[in-house]
Amino acid sequence: AAYRFACAMTLDEPHILVVDDDKRLRDLLRKYLMDNGFRVTVAMEAEDARARLQAMEYDLIVMDRMMPGEDGLALTRSLREGSTVPILMLTAMDGTEARIDGLEGGVDDYLTKPFEPRELLLRITTILRRVRPAATATKEIRIGDYLFDPKREILSGGGSAIRLTSSEASLLTVFADNAGTILSREDLTQLCEIDGSDRMIDVQVTRLRRKIEPDAKMPRYLKTVRGRGYVLWPD
Question: What is the pLDDT of residues 54-68, one digit of tens each?
Answer without folding.
Answer: 888 899 999 998 888
